[in-house]
Amino acid sequence: MSLRLPALTRAAILLALLLATALYFMPGQDADARRTVAVIPNGTYGATAPGGYYVYFTVRNRKVRNLAFQFQITCQASDEPNSEQRFFSSTEAPEGRTIPNNGKLFMRWMERSEGRYGQVSAELKFGARDVANFSAIIPEEDFAGGPDDTFESCDGVGSLRFHRGSELVPPPVVP
What we know:
With 175 residues, the chain is mostly beta strands.
């Protein structure tokens, strides 16, 4: 005895499969955003690393608050041939930004730290490996100075793997 579906039923099944495939691969939608919803528990997150790097923040209802971090940047003075390493500490990140469903929050803002004013960005990625990425670009200050004034521009990036834990507190700022 053989089981055969009527031609109309086979055509309906084939059409349904084609439609499902077309909807799945529809342009304009990120595949990861369709499938991934990161679970982010409320709490305090952070990490410290040798050399003065740290990150610290709180999550409440998928909103990030009190983001603070520190990492090294490279500064080049206009009258020096060599660059120098300095620290950049940030505490003025935008408050209450919601973490998207894919678990990747990107923020950008302007901030003054240790007398330097520039563009700061932070990316918090939640998932199998929770990672915080930072960057700062500090151009030479745009003010009227004397002929003997030196100007300094700085930039740098940093990255830390963070974890959830209420016992974490931000360490003191390294000078």
